Amino acid sequence: MYEFEAEVARVRDRVWAECDPAAILRAGAHEAPRIVAALARGFLEEASGALDGAQQAAVVDGVVAATLGLGPLQPLLADPEVSEVMVNGHADVFVERAGRIERAGVRFDDDAHVLRVIDRILAPIGRRIDALAPMVDARLADGSRVNAVIPPLAVDGPLLTIRRFVAVATSLDDLVGLGSLDAESAFELERLVLDRANVLVSGGTSTGKTTLLAAVLGAAARDDRIVVLEDAAELPLVHPHRVRLETQPAAHEGATAIEMRALVRNALRMRPDRIIVGEVRGAEAYDLLQALNTGHRGSWSTVHANGVEEALLRIESMVLTAGTGMPQPVVRDQVARAVDAVVQLARDASGRRYVSDIALVDVGPDGGGWLLRRLERSP
Q1: Helix and strand tally (H, E) in the chain?
Q2: Which of 10, 64, 178, 185 has its CA 20 to 30 Å from the CA of residue 123?
């Protein structure tokens, strides 16, 4: 008798040790399995105590799956209830289900195994990670967002986070059905879209900002040209006239970094009806304010903040750090004239994500900054 898993692991390790894994992965979805299968058969023939045909075929299939698949992560990513996978070194894997984090019953062989899986994820999309660039953000073909950090930045071993965008809601009605907002709030949000209001969607990490953004923009007119700008394209917006731009990090090969600020400026030349910024987090806040104050109504964006007031203050602070020299009172006035409403999201102890606040933004008396009018809502 032979130990199937041990034989698969032995041959798999030979494939990765003696070949260029990145080149194999770049060969594509159709050719890469053939290359790995041929290598596996060759290594099996070299081994003493040849296996019979059925055993060899089983080992070759196992090696292909282990080499090109995602190993212990495969069943987790196949689970429709898993929205996030977090690898904290080879022995600690966690998942998020229904808004709650729990330990997964899987582990990697060692840190080298985690690094191989990270390489498998990045190679087909032309990204790489190594000691010179030990941190990377990337997007998978299905829209999932990937973040990886390896030593020396990751002190206790390689870290991998995969945020999946499970299609739990594609419309405001879906969000009402999930209990994320009440019917009255859904009506107010739809009215903001139809009235072409400029809106900030605010909240903490994993409160459902992207989900809400996609659901509410489904109410936009079919002939609206919507230009979506993101650091990693992930907004699951279904619309007949949606175009997407994505920032570009600097690469080892010398590719120039294209930051969000450049995308916002370029979007103005693309005849947008609505500009959607996946997340405002830096100096691009200034360019966005200029766009919103020069006729690009109906634009939406998200921002990380704990409340409505904090969201507006964060936009102010980002504009002030953009190096424009604008005094703070002028910046506050610009924010008041650009932003029409803020929608605040929260997540409770049970993991439920919900709209906690909707506030309209008015210009203060004599242009004295912004005033908030909170909409009366059901709890």
Answers
A1: 13, 14
A2: 10
Q: In which element (H, E) is residue 236 found?
A: none
Domain 72-163 matching CATH 3.30.450.370: the answer reads: yes
- pLDDT for 159 equals 97
Pick the CATH number of 172-374 from 3.40.640.10, 3.40.395.10, 3.40.50.720, 3.40.50.300: 3.40.50.300
Q: How far apart are CA 150 and CA 196, in angstroms?
A: 44
CB atoms within 10 A of CB 223: 8
| Beta strands per DSSP E along 150-280 | 159-163, 199-203, 226-230, 242-246, 274-277
**Among 123, 129, 112, 157, CA closest to 9:** 112
Question: Does 72-163 match 172-374 in CATH topology?
Answer: no
Euclidean distance between CA atoms 308 and 374, whole angstroms? 10
Of 331, 231, 318, 220, nearest in space to 272 by CA: 220
- What is the number of alpha carbons within 13 Å of residue 235 lying toward its C-beta? 30
Tokens of 198: 């400029």
Handedness of CA 287, 293, 295, 299 (dihedral sign): positive
4: left (phi > 0), else alpha (psi -120 to 50), else beta? alpha
Confidence of residue 185 (pLDDT cuts 50, 70, 90): very high
* 162 close to 169: Cβ distance less than 8 angstroms: no
Domain ranges of the chain: 4-68, 72-163, 172-374
* 42-85 per-position pLDDT tens digit: 888 776 556 777 888 888 887 887 777 787 888 888 788 898 99
The total number of residues shown for the chain amounts to 379
Contact criterion met (CB below 8 Å) for 264 and 247 = no
**Distance (Å, whole) CA 27 – CA 33:** 9
Inter-residue contact 354 to 215 (CB < 8 Å)? no
Instruction: pLDDT band for 1, please (50, 70, 90 cuts).
Output: very low
106-132 tens-digit pLDDT = 888 889 889 988 988 887 777 788 888
Instruction: Answer yes or no: are the C-beta atoms of 94 and 103 closer than 8 Å.
Output: yes
User: HSE-up of 63 (CA within 13 Å, CB side)?
Assistant: 30
